[in-house]
């Protein structure tokens, strides 16, 4: 089962917030929205080792950093995996 959360952040906080979300570990997909349009969509594999996610995410985070320099504010939409109760 999945749940969706949205966060609105300034461009300067964007990369740090995405890094924080990736390190939480229960994230399936991250979408970066600007003015209602999806700019970047990052699928994350569940259960992948944290080191592998960090290595694969580095180029994506660089692209997000470049985008963040161009915008004042954007929305991060996170698709989380909920653990069964």
Structural class: alpha+beta
Along the chain, the helix and strand elements come as EHEEHE
Binned strand content = 35-45%
- State the helical fraction: 25-40%
Tell me what the structure shows.
This protein is 35% helix and 39% strand. With 85 residues, it is α+β, with helices and mostly antiparallel strands. The protein has one domain. It has a 4-stranded antiparallel beta sheet, covered by helices on one side. The protein is globular, with a radius of gyration of 13 Å.
Task: Please supply descriptive tags for the structure shown above.
four-stranded antiparallel β-sheet; 2 helices; 4 strands; 35% helix; 39% strand
Explain the layout of strands and helices.
Layout lengths: L1 E9 L3 H11 L2 E8 L2 E7 L6 H19 L4 E9 L4
Antiparallel strand pairs: 1-4, 2-3, 2-4
Helix pairs in contact: 1-2
């Amino acid at each position: 089962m999945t749940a969706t959360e949205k966060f609105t952040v300034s461009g300067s906080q964007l990369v740090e917030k995405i890094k924080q979300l990736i390190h939480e570990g229960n994230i399936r997909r991250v979408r970066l929205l600007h003015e209602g349009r999806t700019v970047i969509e990052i699928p994350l594999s569940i259960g992948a080792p944290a080191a592998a996610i960090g290595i694969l995410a580095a180029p994506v985070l660089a692209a997000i950093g470049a985008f963040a320099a161009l915008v004042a504010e954007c929305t991060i939409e996170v698709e989380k995996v909920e653990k069964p109760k």
